[in-house]
Amino acid sequence: MEIRPLTEHTGAEVLGIDLTRPVDATTRATLNRAFVEHHVLAIRDQHLDPPQVLAAVGLFGEIFHQHNTRFALPDCPQIHYLSNQDSFPDGKRYIPGEGWHTDHSNDTRPPKATVLHAVTLPDQGGDTQFANMAEAYAALPAATRARIDPLMAIHVYQSSHSARKLMDLSATNKERVPNAVLHPLARTHPESGAKSIYINPIRIEGLLGLDHKEALPLLHELLEHATQEKFQYRHAWKPGDLVLWDNRCLLHKANGDYDMGQTRYLYRVMLQGDVPH
Ligand code: SIN
Fold first, then answer.
1. What DSSP assignment string belongs to 149-181?
2. What is the DSSP letter of 94?
3. String of b and e for 176-185 (b: at least 16 CB within 10 Å)?
C-alpha cells in the first residue's frame, strides 16, 4: 500500500490496497493515522458492492445513522445514495451537497467522517471541494481567534439563513432529529488536538448571546476567510474512488457543473463522531 499526499495540507491518495480482501491490524492502523494526518483519503481502484462498502468503512469506525432515510438503499439501509437524478416536490432538480457545509452538524454527536464511493460518474466535472478549517483557524488574526473561541453556535436541520434548501424530513425522521444543538464555533480535534473553525452555513441559525446583526457578518467573514483557495483540496473523481473525509476539520461542497443528462451516483456512509469540544 502506498499513501501519496495530494496537497501540502489536505488529501492523500491510497494505492495498492483491495478492500474486498481482509485488512490486517497494521494496515488498518496506518490507514487511520493517514486519515487523521491528511483529512481526506482517496482510496483508488475499489469496486465495492454495498456490504463490501460497509465492511471497508468499518475499518475507520462505527456507522452513523443518517437523518433523512429517504436516501437509504432498500437492501442495505445503512448506506445512502447521492444522485443528481432526484427532484424536489416542485420538480426542481436536487443536487445534494451544493454549498459549503460539514455533515449533520445539527446532531449532538455529528459524524466524524463521511465516505463516498463512486458508482457512476459524469464524463467531466462533479468535483468535491474541501476546505481545511484547521489551516484556516491557524491563519486567523489572534484577536479573531480570541473572539470566536468562547462562542457557541446554534445548529438546526435547515438554517433560515441558508441559500441551499434541503429535502424535508419525514415526520418519523423529525422525531429522532434534535430541534437545535449547540456546538463551539472553534472545536478541538479529538485525535490530532488541532483547533478548527466549526461553521456550517446550511445549519447554523445563530450564535448564542449575539444578535443576528453581529452574528451573521461574523459567520460570513469566517466563511470567506476559511474557503480561500489556499486552504482547499479539490477532488476530481475517478472511477473506483472511495473517498473518506474528516467532518471535524473540513468544510466540503459538491459541484453541479456537469451535463445533467449524465448520472452522478455514489454510495454514502457516515461514521459516528464525538460531542464537539
Ligand atoms: C456531500 O455533501 O456529502 C456530497 C458531496 C458530493 O456529492 O460531492
1. TT-EEEE-SS-TT-SSPPPPPPHHHHHHS-S-E
2. P
3. eeeeebebbb
**Can you list the alpha helix ranges (DSSP code H) found in the chain?**
25-38, 50-57, 133-138, 142-148, 171-176, 212-226
Rounded Cα distance, 223 and 271, in Å: 25
Residue 262 C-alpha cell reads as: 449524465
Instruction: For residue range 167-226, list pLDDT tens digits in order.
Output: 777 778 787 777 899 999 999 999 999 999 999 999 999 999 999 999 999 999 999 999
Ligand 1 center to 142 CA (angstroms): 32
State pTM to two decimals. Answer: 0.95
Residues touching ligand 1 (Cβ under 6 Å) are 82, 96-97, 114, 128, 252, 254
Pocket test for ligand 1, best of 253, 257, 267, 270 (most atoms within 8 A of CB): 253
- Integer Cα distance of 276 and 33 in angstroms: 20
Judged against a pLDDT cut of 90, whether residue 71 lies above it is answered with no
Classify 191 in phi/psi space as left (phi over 0), alpha (psi -120 to 50) or beta: alpha
User: Do 57 and 244 form a contact (C-beta atoms < 8 A)?
Assistant: yes
What gap in Å lies between CA 267 and CA 120, rounded to an integer?
Answer: 10
Which fold, 2-271?
Double-stranded beta-helix (3.60.130)
Measured in residues, the chain has a length of: 277
